Amino acid sequence: MRILLIGPPGAGKGTQAVRLASRLSIQHISAGDLFREHIDQGTELGRNARTHISSGRLVPDGITIGVLAERLGRPDTERGFLLDGFPRNIPQAEALDGILADSGSGLDAVLDLEIPEAEVVGRIAGRRLCRRNREHIFHVDHSPPEVAGACDVCGGELYQRDDDREATVRRRLEIHRSETAPVVGHYRAAGLVSTISALGQVQEVLDRALLAIGQGQGRVDASGTSRR
Hints:
By secondary structure, this protein is α/β, with parallel strands linked by helices. It has one domain: P-loop containing nucleotide triphosphate hydrolases (Rossmann fold), CATH 3.40.50. 44% of the residues lie in helices and 16% in strands. The protein is built from eight helices and nine strands. It has helices at residues 13-24, 31-41, 44-53, 61-72, 90-102, 117-125, 166-188, 202-212; strands at 2-6, 27-30, 81-84, 109-114, 127-130, 137-139, 158-159, 193-197, 225-227. The strands form two sheets. The protein has a six-stranded mixed β-sheet, sandwiched between helices. A hairpin with a 6-residue loop joins strand 5 and strand 6 (137-139). The longest helix is centred in the last third of the chain and has 23 residues, at 166-188. It starts with a strand and ends with a strand.
């Protein structure tokens, strides 16, 4: 399957993307992770991307599209993929449509995560990541480490990303409203969009996503998943 997971920052896209991709045995492709790899390596692309990311702005389309086109061209995407963080605006969505059309394929589903903005700010501003392993994530209120500033798993230093600071989060939300939200309308016209509540436990949200793409079992409350 070829799936796009979309929603505002803090909706839990990264968490759900990892679990959903694993469940479906497809590649999880995160635009954010690709850029952070370049930032950590100190490449020119990474330096340029950091300037935009740290101020809450989107990385320019030309750079983003080029990076994702190369990634989608790798052999490990042939069985399917889940895109997380791309496309973020209409030009990127149109570019993605073209890339997939050139390979004779297209998206199978678009999952749109919904969440109140106040919840987003609380989730992101309190988040802390481990410098040794970014999959080790804590929250100052909801899941604090046993020792302040240290990862419970490996002892690595915990830090707050520049794009997780409150002022930057609010700027990211403004960008999402003006540039990313219209992407949902772009794909809704093709009948691909299922809107899913991102509130609740991780497993509850995952169950809604699986049900939306026809992979779930049992009953999920209708308020949690809707086809639009």
